Every structure is written in C-alpha cells, then in structure tokens.
Known about the structure:
The structure is a single chain. This protein has 173 residues and is α+β, with helices and mostly antiparallel strands. The protein folds into two domains: 1-30; 33-166. It has helices at residues 2-28, 87-104, 126-143, 155-159, and strands at 34-38, 50-52, 57-59, 63-67, 70-76, 110-114, 119-123. The longest helix is centred in the N-terminal third of the chain and has 27 residues, at 2-28. The protein is elongated. The N and C termini lie far apart (71 Å).
Amino acid sequence: MIKLYLSLVLVMIAIVLFILAARQRRQTGLPSGKVIYIDTSKWGKVEKPLYDPKLRLTGKPDYLVRQGEHIVPVEVKSRRAPASPHDSHIYQIAAYCLLVNHAYGVRPTHGIIHYSDKTFAIDFSGELEQAVKKMIVEMQERSSHTEVKRSHQDAKRCKHCGYRSVCDQALRI
C-alpha cells in the first residue's frame, strides 16, 4: 500500500513539474521543439554570433528552435505588444532568418517575435526576404559615408544608443 501512495505522489510531482515547465516555455515565447541556440544572459554562456560574409551581416537571435527539419528564430521583447509588430522588429527577425539560412543551410519559413503579453509569427516570404536584403544594402551604403546625421529628436532613444559614447550629435539628457 505504501508503494502505491509513493507512486501516486511521484506521479503528482512529475505532473506539477511538467505543468511548470510548459508555463515557463510559454512565457519565453518559445515554440515546441529543441532549443539549439540561446543568447540570453539569464541562461549562462553566450553563443557565438551568426555571420554571413556575403551579406556582411552578423546577429544573435535570442533563441533558435529546431522543429523537425525547420529552424525558427525567436526574438524576445520585454515590452508590451503594439497592435502589430514594429517594422524594425520584423526586419530584425527577417535578418535572423537570413543568418539561419546561411549558418544551417535551412531556410526558415517564419520567425517569432515574443512581447511580454503577445506573440507574433512572422512569415519569411520571398517579398520580406528581398526587402530585408535591400535594407541591408542601403544601411551598408549609408554607413560607408564619413558623416551620418542623427535621424531623430528622441532623448530616450539617444540615451540607449550603442554609439552614444562616440557620437558628436548625442542629445543632452
């Protein structure tokens, strides 16, 4: 009889742990599948960036999840979701799709943008692929100019810019 009770307790503990793990996966925005790449400080070792020398593109998606033959890039945003994802977030996930295609030889069908309260699946269509490639070329052409003017008057955006320490146009905050 004790063995039966002990077995039932162990089964209940296993069920609780399974439910907690499933809840945590949902909160991270991860789809089902095997996580093969992680770039979040919470999880320890930081992965090597993905790189495509032809496109001169480097990036570190938050997660890559293998689903059978497919690999899905996942980008996690800490803020609440807008009505629809910002264009910059869509282009970011599309760039990760390009990098996955180069690094793993598998073209993603979609990527995922997970906000704190909502998740969007972004279809990696041929149209989006061409648009992000065009944007990459434009960005590279602009970066080759010796002087790039600040494109905004947003102090908050300026404060968190990665180039702030070397920018001669930084807004005073």
